[in-house]
Each structure stands twice: as structure tokens, then as C-alpha cells.
Amino acid sequence: MAAPRTGEPVTPPDTDPRRWWGLVVIALAQLMVVLDATIVNIALPSAQRDLGMSDGNRQWVITAYTLAFGGLLLLGGRIADLAGRKRAFVTGLIGFAAASALGGAANGSAMLFGARALQGVFAAVLAPAALSLLTTTFTDPKERGKAFGIYGALAGSGSAIGFIVGGVLTEYLDWRWCLYVNVPIAAVAVIGALVLLHDRPVRGGARLDVPGVLLGCGGLVALVYGFSEAESRGWSDPLVLGLFAAAAVLLAGFVWWQGRAPMPLLPLHVLRDRNRAGCFLTMMLAVIGMFGLFLFMTYYLQVVLGYSPVRTGLAFLPLTVAIVIGSTQISARLLHHVPPRLLMVPGMVLASGGMVILTRMTVHSAYTTEILPALLLMGLGMGLTFMPVFATATAGVAPQDAGVTSATVNTSQQVGGSIGTALLNTIATTSSATYVTAHLTDPSHRKAVVREAVVHGYTVAIWVAAGIMLLAAVVAGTLVTARAPRHGPPAGAVG
């Protein structure tokens, strides 16, 4: 084969007929990582009973994963750049599967917490490697649109799929299978990766930025932990305030050091690019609203309407289908014809409109007429938004920065999810308490009033989420100025 001309991708060639099978492998791994953030939510009550966890400690099943995942993503991204994306991808898969098996076999809460933290560690290596492999595999604008459409659909719907799979496994098998299920998935992905995926040569002489790791990862861990604790302790708790203060100091020190480090963990030119920064911020704001939806709708369907775990999971299925359609059939087909913001802005407006519909729900709402239309709008909006965000944020990045750029996209998701869960849950519980105080005049009606108060709290928080999604539309419309890929240079190209 003739040597490629300067500026063309070296590996893999765009003519490799197996690249679409490689996409299946990458998508499978990404789906496993994303759905694992929610698959245990429905299984949590069963696991709590089985292992004798206290109400105060049960949150660590979720928090241990999100802390390790969100806090170590930048490190994982740079490891992918330095050690090789394929090597990092396979290592992440094997480690994730081993940690999942350990969690499934847990004989106590401490063992389960530790396994979930290990899952988060390996997910932090796996997720950036997956996205950067996708970035370097598909460089043709039209093919890139299709590939990122599939990836965006999985990123947007993975959490909802987690609820479905978690409900089925918990109800018909055992909560432990919510963890064991990752082992066969990872095994298939490892074999596929070894056979189908390619990588560029690793840079020689590159070193890891240890001070950057300590400052950046320490700051992210403190930030994610702070939001997690704010949900249960309140925003004025000394521990929460201390974590936020530590996060501010560490992240400020990280930015200062990255401008001076000889081989920075996160080169600042990645963040200075206007389109890329706009995509990161849009992603974070979108996920704040989306995680709020998952949190409230799960409790609303199970606790207020009395749905079973499986029925709750299936109730999210139309949302998942709408995300896939919006991402693969609309965004992927249009991205190489129109600027990214012409997809992102309408997407966020649609999603916000879906949220507004949900603010009208009551303790007696009908799923088909009052919940389903909102989920469909939300799904289409997310599908329209996520695909161009991923494609634009990773376009035009130098190969040696592909991993850390991918990690920054994932970090914006994780931080957004942590903020959304803590912020919106706090708003909901506060509004519910205020409603009870104002409306509980007859103690004999307490149960009915409390149910109404819970739903009232959800609707108030959903109003806030709708506003945050409109803010995401404004951010996308003002900051993301990239042209359609076929009409100009790659979005966000950097030297």
C-alpha cells in the first residue's frame, strides 16, 4: 500500500472494511460504562437487604463509582495518549470485568463499595480510550457523522437502558447479575478489540504530569464528592463547603500549573478553543437536566404510580428509542450539511419543552397522555444534541491529545450528572417540605398530602431543569460557531 500523504490519517485507513465492526466494539464498551452508572439503581433496595447496608451507607454503591470515574477521567485520558488507545481500551475492559465480578460476588457492603470504586477506576481508562479510538478511526465527515450518531445515541440512552436491564435482572434473576452481566459483554469486546481495532504509534519520551494528576484529579474528586454529599447533608454542611473550597483551590492550582508544565495533563489550548469549550459546557448543562429526569421519574413511577422495576424500566424505552432516532437518523444525516449549533440549539429547546410538559404531572397522571409525550420530546432533543457535541468537541484534535480531549467530554458529563442529582434533589425535597407545611391542616389526610408534596417537589425541580436546558441552548447558540464539516476545516482545529 502506498504511503499516505502528509496530513492524512496513518492508521487506520478509511478504506478498512472492518472499521464498522470496530465501531460495534467501541459502542459496546461505551454502553457498558454508561449503563453501569444506573443499572444498580433499581437493584439497590435488593442489595441493601441482602448485605445489611444502612440507609446512610447505601449511597456509596452509586457514589463510589461516580467518584472514581469522574475524578480520574483526565488521568485515564492521558494514559490512553501515552500508553496507546487500544492498549488502554483493552486494559480498561479487562479491569472493568474483573471489578464487576468482584462486586457480584460481594459478601458484605465494604466489598461491594470497593468493587464499585474499582469499576470507576477502569471506566475512567476505558471511556476516553473508546471515544478517542472513534475519533481517530473515522475521519471522513460523512462517515464520522454516522459513527458519532451511534456513539451519541448510546451516550444519551445508556442510562435509560440501565434502568431497563437493571429492572429485568433484579426482578427475574438477582441483583448480583446487574454486575455479572458486564463480564460476558467485556469478554466479547476484548476479543473484538484485539481483532478489529488499530492505533497510532505511541509518542516516544512522553511522561505523565504527576503534579497535574494530583491537582486535577484531586480537584475533580473533591468536586464530585461535594455534590454527592450535598444531596444528603445540605449545601451549608461544613463537609460540603470544605469539599467545594478544596475543589476550587485544587482546580485553580491545576489550571495555573497546566500553563507551565512541560508535558501538561490537559493542554490549555484544548479548552481555549471556542467551539470545544462551548461543547463541554453544553454537555454539562444538558446532563444536569437529564439526570434530574431519570432521578425523579424513577421514583415517581415506582413510588407514586406503583410500577414494578421491570415496568419502570420499560417506561423509559420510548425515551431510549427517541434518542437513537434523533442521534442516528436526524443528527448523523444532517451534521455534514449544517453547522452543529443548528442541531444542538433545537435539541435543547425540544428537551426543555419535554421537561415543561412533565411539570404538569400529578399523583394520578396517565402515562400514555401525560408522561410519554414528554419522554419522546426529551429523547429527540438529547439525540439531536449529544451527537454533534461529541463530534465537534473531538474534531481537529492533534492525535497526541485525542485521549485527554475525549476525557474532558466525559468529565463534563460526570460533573453535570453529579450537579444535577444533588441540586435538583435538594430543590425537590425542600419544595416538598414547604408544601407539606402549607397544606397539612388535617392530620388524617397526611398520607395524601405527602404524596402530593412529593410530586409538587418533582415539578418544581423539573422547572429548574427545563431552565437549565434552555441555558444550554443559549450556550450552544453563542459559543459553538463551527461550520458544517463538509463546508470548512474540521471544527475546532488546533495547531
Task: Explain this structure.
- By secondary structure, the protein is mainly alpha-helical.
- Helix content is 76%, strand content 0%.
- Helix 12 runs antiparallel to helix 18.
- The longest helix is centred in the last third of the chain and has 38 residues.
- The N terminus and C terminus are likely disordered.
Task: Quickly describe the structure.
The chain is mainly α and 495 residues long.
Structural category: mainly alpha
Distance between the termini: 28 Å
Number of strands: 0
Order of helices and strands: HHHHHHHHHHHHHHHHHH
Low-confidence stretches: 1-13, 487-495
Query: Rough shape?
Result: globular
Q: Approximately how much beta-strand content do the residues carry?
A: under 5%
Helical percentage? over 70%
How many helices does DSSP assign? 18
The description of the largest β-sheet is: none
Roughly how many Å is the radius of gyration? 22 Å
The residue-averaged pLDDT reads: 81
Question: Which features characterize this protein?
Answer:
495 residues; 0% strand; single chain; 18 helices; mainly alpha; disordered C terminus
Layout of helices and strands:
Blueprint (H helix, E strand, L loop, with lengths): L18 H17 L3 H13 L8 H24 L1 H20 L4 H29 L3 H32 L4 H4 L1 H15 L13 H24 L4 H21 L9 H5 L1 H31 L4 H7 L1 H18 L6 H18 L8 H27 L8 H38 L6 H34 L16
Helix pairs in contact: 1-5, 1-6, 1-8, 2-6, 3-4, 3-5, 3-9, 3-17, 4-5, 4-8, 5-17, 6-13, 6-14, 6-16, 9-10, 9-17, 12-16, 12-17, 12-18, 14-16, 15-16, 15-18, 17-18
